[in-house]
Amino acid sequence: MPDTMMPDTLLKGTETTDWVALADQIGRDIAAAAARHDAEDGFVTEGFQALRAAGFLKALVPAELGGGGAEYRVICDAIRRLGTHCGATALAFSMQCHLVAVPAWRWRHEQAPVEALLRRIAAEDLVLISSGGSDWLPSSGQAVRVEGGYRITARKRFASGCPMGDLLMTSAILDDPEKGPTVLHFGVPFRAEGLRVLDTWHALGMRGTGSHDVTLEEVFVPEAAIAARREPGKWHILFHHIFAMAFPLVYSAYVGVAEGARDKALTLVRAKGDRAASAVLAGRLENAFAKAEMALDRMIRIAETEAPGPARTGRTATARTLTGQAAIETVERAMELVGGAAFYRDLGLERAFRDVQGARFHPLQEMPQLELTGRLALGLPIDG
């Protein structure tokens, strides 16, 4: 059973904007540029500019704080719709969304002191960049205490969207003489002295996300900017918040990629003369896609209705693995259905195949997920 069940209205929004239809239109507008950015390892600038102009960067900020007041599930659906056209735009945008969704939830339900950040996002259309995929529970980098704050030296990988980033939401480890190693969480402006974006993102897929490395060389972070402190390598309530709310958004992008591949494959085969010979392959494709949809819906439902804690995190982790596996299988089945033509770049299925492989690599990957799920099932502590 969940740690605490929460009302269905927990993540409901107040918006009147049709965010999904708007995302679909943006996706259609940027589809041609998406292929070019994939070929050139370029950032999906057009996609982010269109999202900013349409109000998506602040969509999940509560309306009371100047934001769009969007419903969490609706933004998951919008990301999925974007993903059918451009997986890179959808994935990079999902990182922005989870960095907004978590403080928005904490402001509304825990009265957390995050109002200033949310108001800034709404007023300035800030692009927030996460280093969480490379840091996760252990964190990385060094924080040294100095007068008024800390000097941070670190190298952060997989900083999706950083070519347009305003704030890097990251962490580093302080060797505290009293408490021992302590992870400090903070935001750093991309204009800060000592912060550099390195041209490192030359990858198999999701090439347009601009997920370059970011280095911090003795960057000053004031004491007032420290948002949280925790023990490295251990599950903290902050990560229970992040995990269950981030990954439905992230994996909506991958299900969108899978859906785009499915739709393209079915359209191509329907246009052929002899469709009956392809019926079994089409059936396998539909089964794979149904699994992806159901697992994603479960993840979203968990975020909507359950309180943060180990049990919710475990259920989300299982659903995250199943969603990723089914999204990958869907694209593979789509290629099987189309046949040899799927091997050509200009058809677009080859790019979908490369993009969807990214679903393997976000935390928790399958082996750590299995260990976490098994420990919970056996009644063992999650910090083994």
Kindly describe this structure.
Strands 1, 2, 3, 4, 5, 6, 7 and 8 form an 8-stranded mixed sheet that branches. α1 (19-40) packs parallel to α3 (72-85). Helix content is 50%, strand content 15%. The protein has helices at residues 19-40, 45-53, 72-85, 87-110, 115-124, 132-135, 237-270, 279-305, 310-338, 349-356, 366-377, and strands spanning 128-130, 142-146, 149-159, 167-176, 180-189, 195-198, 212-222, 228-230. By secondary structure, the chain is an alpha+beta fold. The chain folds into 3 domains: 8-127, Acyl-CoA dehydrogenase/oxidase, N-terminal domain (Butyryl-Coa Dehydrogenase, subunit A, domain 1, Orthogonal Bundle); 132-230, Butyryl-CoA Dehydrogenase, subunit A, domain 2; 237-377, Butyryl-CoA Dehydrogenase, subunit A, domain 3.
